[in-house]
């Protein structure tokens, strides 16, 4: 039987081979193992295989799983990759180490206020709606420069990079290229893009973090 640990190993091999193929420095791409919907018993073998960087998309779900796993394993780094409501900022700052989904001024301010209160300065990514899809979260490409400036200079967030989720029905390359371009002109070194189906492509376009779920944990029962 193929285990999650086997699939983790395959994904890591793929990442290394993509780094070589696309002339990226070895080790320049970090793997975020997306464990949403999977319970502690499904996550533990992946921790035992050495993975320490994980992504979750719901604050409540993460709060139910990760405190126990942090007791068992040292050095866990947990990334919030799903939408955030400002009334969950307190829990988000207490539970996560990196936030990928800053997408409006209200959230930026709520996060900063909580970070000050809790004495935790978390690295943040700005989510960009590269496909300008009405139902999708994220800042429109033309508004990103101003929003990054406000988050840094007025709110005082530690903005490290940009994140996107391309439209499901389009080739992702164009979106990845756009995100890389916007990150470059804003002097942002981190680019969070690429999921199970397209992380290789994303590495070709400069991803520094890929967010891979089902290719490691298997098919989810719900999205
Ligand atoms: C679920 C999710 C992923 C991982 O998706 P897979 O296709 O399972 O790799 C990546 N990014 C975000 C924002 C997600 O919600």
UniProtKB/TrEMBL annotation:
InterPro entries in the cross-refs: Ala_racemase_N, PLP-binding_barrel, PyrdxlP_homeostasis
Family recorded in the similarity comment: Belongs to the pyridoxal phosphate-binding protein YggS/PROSC family.
KW ATP-binding (keyword) present: no
Name the UniProt record assigns to this protein: Pyridoxal phosphate homeostasis protein
Chain ranges of the Alanine racemase N-terminal domain: 25-220
Pfam entry (one): Ala_racemase_N
Keywords: Pyridoxal phosphate
Species the sequence originates in: Roseibium aggregatum
Cofactor(s) annotated in UniProt: pyridoxal 5'-phosphate
